[in-house]
Amino acid sequence: MEFAIISTLNGVTYGLLLFMVSAGLTLIFGMMGVLNFAHASFYMLGAYVAYAVSSIFGFWAGLIVAPIVVGLTGMVVERYLLRRVHAHGHAHELLLTFGLAMIIEEMIKLFFGDFPVNYQMPDYLRFSAFSVYGTDYPFFRLFIGATAVVMFALLWGLLTRTRTGIVVRAAERLPSMAEALGHNIPIVFMCVFGAGAALAGLAGAVAGAFYPTNPNMGLELGVIVFVVVVVGGLGSLKGSLLASLIIGLFSSFAVGLDWSVASILDLVGLGGWAHSIGGLLTLELSSVSATIPFALMLIVLLVRPAGLMGERN
Amino acid sequence: MNKFAALAAVSTLAFCANAAQADPLKIGIIESLSGAQTSSGRLYATAVQYSVDKINAAGGFNGEDIQVVEYDNAGGATGAADKFKQAVADGVDIVIQGASSAIGGQITEDVRKHNLRNPGNEMIFINVGGEAMELTGDKCQFYHFRYTTTAPMRVNALVSAMKEAGDLGTKVFSINQNYSWGQDMQSAIESAAQDGGFEVVDAVLHDVNKIQDFAPFVARIKSSGATTVMTGNWSNDLLLLMKATGDAGLDVTFGTAYLDQPGNIANAGETALGHYIANNYDNTAGDASFAEDYKAVTGQNPIFVEPQTIFAIGALGQALEGLDFGGGAVDVTKIALALEDVTYESPVGPITVRKEDHQTIRPVVVSKVVKDAKYPADDTSMGFQSVGVVSGEDAIYPVQDSCQMKRPN
Fold first, then answer.
1. Sequence ranges of the domains in chain B
2. Where is the signal peptide (chain B) (predicted)?
């Protein structure tokens, strides 16, 4: 019971963190069809901007400035780079964002050095919210989770319940029709890209204070964020949330479980044989816990190529 | 075959005669200078340059300055193999590398094959950071020298110093990364259990630098009832693990190998206090001139992998002092033989090479993170204070059976 409760708690908050980082990516892909490889770099940029600002003006100022700066960067990228290559198709957009990711990473190293910087949450946020079975539960994890939930609610409301949402969705479905109705489609795209980047910036500012802020943080989270978006269904916000939670829970439970192929074979009396062979048969689930999301992605792609909640094919 | 050998000999002679004027010794650093491991790679390269400058200031070698060439392996073994070929083409005599055992494994094999194919034109590989046991085991060879510790040396030192300080406890949790180094650490921890008087209550291997959330592992440490956690984790895997443990309010003592990586102490904050590390260098040992000179030249304190690198080049410089090629061709085999006999007096104690497997016998320093340290780390008030220096003789382990070294005739 203790194991189940603690693992669920850990899994859900980790899942919400993943959602927080992948929300912007989903938004940009869903509304613009651009697979943004630089997304995790925007996340890193957010953390570093928040670090730079917070060391002078305090933590909350960093939290506000980071998404604005990163959002503006995103808009500039869309206006002056992406828009130029848009006509040449997806491959060019992909390559452009890929190159951008590398440039951002090296720029960060140039300005902030190769080592993790000391970006910390303020001391008054460093307390345990509650205690389960003698294990403290840090408040900041709940803060990360809450940020993700608010992010989801806002995005969801904005896209489905407001006039702006209708325009954005129309721009994605039928751009020329929306344009004919008098909407400035290029501006809409620029704002969507900026908003997606800003979300990544906010995620970086929040998560960077909890996890180490270093030049590799984009690289480390970047891959897993793509897995989330693919599993959830490219462009589906609800799907991303679902996929994040599933991946969070799977990773969390896998660590505590000593399952291996050998232990399953034990049930039918072949355990001794499996242990004598070793290798893959005795590989414990916990030692491949970081691989589980990728296995999940493989299965989802095989069974439902569009992702759990994806519509497009 | 004989004809070939004769031909090779003649051409080598001819080559030697041609190059009779001035033949500088060339050192090639094949290091991770871009990509994820830049932070370590750059430190190794800076330390090599610093120490070679010292030798050159004292007159260089063979009538010339020693030349240093940097090659960027981009953090991978494939890149390293590529750059090794380039280093061969550039006429490099000594290759130096430290960040990553996987790359070290690639280079030592490349050097071995090169030396087989080019007798009389050998190269040396000075390994300043790759700690995988196989480098002095299965892959051991005459032209590879390891100027750093290995897993059993670090673990044995940790166990003896922590036991003496009363911080070891009887229940130890082993958590390591799932590749050669982590597996070496795990088996070293398990084999130290009997002498250390503790029980390994649980051992786990996990993916390398992929895990963002260590809270589930902390839950597992807690349910095992361990009071001490021993880990060879480095970079994010160590930082995230320690932070998650601190956040959960779990009261365990860490025995680590890489807590001294720049940025770690600042990021871990108060959580780092009271934890242990076994490494190659004690920044409070003896007089402070070593650290202060390094800081004056390069702008940073030598607290991570720099000291072991500087000691390695220092030992090389000592070996070179006894050699004189009269300005002629550099005989790398003679340098290797001389290096075997060097006893280098580092600020923490003597470092010698064990001839059977070319592992260095060296003191291992165990330090603890304390407040108000003499040399604070990362602009905090915390830093490392040495709690014990385990002498080379006590820290060393027997030569691995798998090492079959072929010596030059």
1. 19-149+287-360, 151-279+363-395
2. 1-22
Q: Say which CATH topology domain A2-250 has.
A: ABC transporter involved in vitamin B12 uptake, BtuC (1.10.3470)
B249 interaction partners in chain A (CB closer than 8 Å): 128, 131, 135-136
Query: What is the number of alpha carbons within 13 Å of residue A203 lying toward its C-beta?
Result: 32
Q: Is the pTM of this model over 0.90?
A: no
Confidence of residue B1 (pLDDT cuts 50, 70, 90): very low
Determine, for residues B215 and A14 on separate chains, whether the beta-carbon distance falls below 8 Å.
yes
**Inter-chain CB proximity B216 and A251 less than 8 Å:** yes
Indicate the fold that domain B151-279+363-395 takes in CATH. Rossmann fold (3.40.50)
CATH 1.25.40.20 fits B19-149+287-360, yes or no: no
pLDDT at A96: 94
Report H helices in B35-179: 38-57, 77-89, 101-117, 151-164
Handedness of CA B120, B126, B132, B137 (dihedral sign): positive
pLDDT in tens, B61-119: 988 899 999 999 988 899 999 999 999 999 999 999 998 888 999 999 999 999 999 99
At B160, list the tokens: 């003896």
Q: CB B220 to CB A284 under 8 A? A: no
Determine the pLDDT at residue B22.
63
User: How much is the pLDDT for B18?
Assistant: 45
**CA separation for the pair B65, B150 (Å, rounded):** 33
Q: Does A48 touch chain B (CB under 8 A)?
A: no
In B49-99, the DSSP E strands lie at: 67-72, 94-97
Tens of pLDDT along B161-198? Answer: 999 988 898 999 999 998 888 999 999 999 999 988 99
Alpha helices (H) in B136-257, listed in sequence order: 151-164, 180-196, 215-224, 236-247
Query: Any chain B CB within 8 A of the CB of A135?
Result: yes
* Single-letter residue type at A113: G
Number of H helices, E strands in chain B: 13, 15
Here the ipTM equals 0.82
What is the total residue count of chain A?
A: 313
User: What pLDDT does B16 receive?
Assistant: 47
The alpha carbon of A57 is separated from its chain's Cα centroid by a whole number of angstroms, namely 27
Q: Write down the residue that tokens 């300055």 correspond to.
A: B65
Interatomic CA distance for residues A20 and A193, integer angstroms: 16
Does the beta-carbon distance from A221 to B239 stay under 8 Å? no
